Amino acid sequence: MIPLDLFEDPPPDAEALRVPLAPGAVLMRGFALEGDAELLQAIESVIAQAPPLHWQTPGGGTMSVATTRCGPVGWVPGGPDGGHHYAAQHPRTGRPWPAMPGCLMDFALCAASEAGYPQFVPDSCLINHYAPGAKLGLHQDKYETDLRAPIVSLSLGLPAVFLFGGFQRSDRSDRYRLVHGDVVVWGGTSRLRFHGVLPVEDGTHALVGRRRLNVTFRKIGR
Ligand code: SIN
Ligand code: FE2
Asked: What DSSP element (H or E) covers 155?
């Protein structure tokens, strides 16, 4: 006899869109596809007000990724030991960071909820601009005060290989190809897992052009 609940399972394609990475961490393939043009427009408006910069690494190097941000809490990359540091204004324009556009906030709430974090309200949104060849070494996101809140990460434009590892830098990491519209959320016991991005291959995306944009929503809680 076929168990009845077999018919209540989600259709296989819906399941394939939801890839568990670890407890508390999920890749939701194509989750942002529907509103991609509106999201891109909101990101472009932030970029126009606060152009992405190549911040310094603690070792005195320069990041290959260019970063900007929006939302009330002004943290940017390049603090001691690879974390973030507080910057009240954009260093080049001298203006405060732009407010978080409503559609980005709505998106973050919706994605977090879908991933099992219905309480999440971000106060900061980092925008990483990857030109072809740009990468992000393995790191932990640990400069947020409230580590109970997850990280919500939205990828647009060129594909990239996302590394998702363990709790030591030397732990083996799994590789996932993230494409335009993919969303990764990690929290709970996976909140401090090391992660990174391999160098982005050259190409052109029909909507976004010759770049990858990654937006991470965070609750810094200062
Ligand atoms: C990050 O680790 O902050 C960004 C990850 C990504 O670009 O996918
Ligand atoms: Fe990160």
From this structure: strand 151-157
Asked whether 199 and 135 are in contact (CB, 8 A), the reply is yes
Which H or E element spans position 102? helix 102-114
Closest residue by CA, ligand 1 atom 6: 214
Q: Rounded CA gap, 21 and 100, in Å?
A: 28
Indicate the pTM of the whole model.
0.92
Ligand 1 atom closest to Cα of 139?
2
State if residue 162 touches ligand 1 by the CB under 6 angstroms criterion.
Answer: yes
What's the confidence (pLDDT) of residue 80? Answer: 67
Q: Is 202 within 8 Å of 133 (Cβ atoms)?
A: yes
Q: Is the CB of 67 under 6 A from ligand 1?
A: no
pLDDT tens-place string over residues 197-222:
999 999 999 999 999 999 999 998 86
Q: Is 94 helix (H, G, I), strand (E, B) or coil?
A: coil
Contact criterion met (CB below 8 Å) for 73 and 123: yes
